[in-house]
Amino acid sequence: MPDLPLAIRVLNDRLRFRYSGPRRVARLDTFTLDLADWKLSLTDRTPCFWVHSPEHLHTPIDLADEIRDAVREQAWQNETILVLVDGPADALRRQLAGSFTPFVVIDDRQQKDIHDAPSPTRVMLDILLAQMPRSRLSPYETSRPVTASRFFGRKSYLNKILSHPKTNFLIIGIRRIGKSSLLREVERLLDVSDPPGERERRRLYIDCSVITSPEEFYREIVRQLSPNDMKRLLGRGPQSMRFQSLMFDYLADRHGGPITYLLDEIDRLLEHLGPDLSLFDVLRKASLQGESARFILAGFRVAQRAINNRATPFYNFGRALILDALDRTEVKEMVEIPMEQLRVKLSGRDEIVQRIYRETAGQPNLVQFYCQTLLEQLDRAPEAGSALSIENLRWVYENADFRDFVLQTFMANALPLERAVVFAMVGANGGRTDAFSLKEIDAELDRRGLSVTFTDLDDACRNLVTAGVLQREGKQFAFSIPLFARMLEQNYPIDFAFDKTRREIASTELSR
């Protein structure tokens, strides 16, 4: 076994936490350590610096600059960095304090405490919490895809995808429901279970929102997988199109086996392609005949329409998975596990979890925003101690960022008719949360001068249920999030918002 910092040796020997390294960065030895099991901001590749040479131990100012430069060089600025020191570390800790990148400096005495402890986890978490605010150490993330320690739930979706390695999948879901995170977690788990060889890539994630043509699509694949073969594989003109399906066979051979292509934001690509979806004939052939590729796609409305259109090669391209909201058990896990690790006591645990579940409708981004808001407020209110109760949930209700996040999510997800349905229900209810039938919604729309077909109204209400805005109980529809109607009423003149939306619908119909 190579020389290791004492803390890494303990975590590896006793807890079976995996590590890689050492790897030299400038004059520093670095490791990555898999701490995803703790379900905090620490990832499966948490960066670690090992400070053990005599010259480093006596130059804290210069050492701090070297560590910061190494972090920039490795693009670790958004990670929590562990610095393991074989000696005293107070001076280095002071030099790194206040950095934008969070550093946790662990000295030789603390490493010995970890080594001697009945529970290394408890001691190390105590050290982390002494140097980081809970809100920085928490796993909650609302602005980018998450994996590993930050990824919660979705076990049934992961099992379906991972247990059918030759099946194409299409993940259907609204914005911010977690499609990108699911793709990234599939990518990570496949790389863990079937590691590619050196210089091989067996999984490729592509953001299709910036791709406008088949040529751009192929070029992006070759750029990432075999850039030196760009001219040979793609050629200079239409005559090279006949080699497209063979290209996937070649790339699979080059990288040691079938490649899984994870194609995100597929709606934008479909819109750019228009009626010509021959690209998917090529992809289907690569995945079904040559067995050189598998495709996991993620999209929403356009993808859902296309996969059900018998007239296109996208029809039944893969198995469709509708990505719903989290269930109560998954929300409970997302709330309780990190809070416990962060030493936050939930007074009235079941009631708090139930309230969060009800007021977020299980939308993962809202649950994360809700929990992160509570932790940030707890950091700012030391008099509150380390306990959260039902009464503390008012921090979220009073938080302008949470309100804006909820409303922006709704406006981003809903089509004009769907927004009109919501504004009409809010206006008719006067801020209450009464349930409505389709007939009552139609009557209210008609009273406000908007006449729609039964099919369009039914589709709009179904989409609002999928989006987590409405819930359906029998023939009645009600708001999934009790606070939502009140937020809308407090932030928009409802009659004005409805009239603007009605004119938007009319303008769209005239332009068709």
Description:
The protein has 512 residues and is an alpha/beta fold. It has four domains: 6-132, 2-Layer Sandwich (Nucleotidyltransferase, domain 5); 154-322, 3-Layer(aba) Sandwich (Rossmann fold), CATH 3.40.50.300; 328-405; 414-511, Winged helix-like DNA-binding domain superfamily/Winged helix DNA-binding domain (Arc Repressor Mutant, subunit A, Orthogonal Bundle). The chain has helices at residues 6-15, 54-57, 60-73, 90-96, 108-116, 120-131, 134-137, 155-162, 179-193, 214-225, 230-234, 244-254, 266-273, 279-288, 301-307, 328-341, 349-360, 364-380, 394-397, 400-413, 416-429, 438-447, 454-466, 482-491, 494-511, and strands at residues 19-25, 28-33, 46-51, 81-85, 103-106, 169-172, 203-207, 259-264, 293-299, 319-322, 345-346, 387-388, 436-437, 470-473, 476-479. The protein has a five-stranded mixed sheet, sandwiched between helices. Strands 7-8-9-6-10 form a five-stranded parallel sheet, sandwiched between helices. Strand 4, helix 4 (90-96) and strand 5 form a beta-alpha-beta unit. The longest helix has 18 residues, at 494-511.
Index terms:
25 helices; Nucleotidyltransferase, domain 5; 5-stranded mixed sheet; 51% helix; single chain; Rossmann fold; 512 residues; 5-stranded parallel sheet; alpha/beta
Give the overall shape, derived from the CA principal axes.
Answer: globular
**CATH fold name of the largest domain:** Rossmann fold
The radius of gyration is 26 Å
Stretches where pLDDT is under 50 for at least 5 consecutive residues are: 237-241
- What's the architecture of the largest domain, going by CATH? 3-Layer(aba) Sandwich
Number of helices: 25
Look at the helices and sheets and give the structural class: alpha/beta
The CATH H-level superfamily of the largest domain is P-loop containing nucleotide triphosphate hydrolases
Please state the average pLDDT score: 88
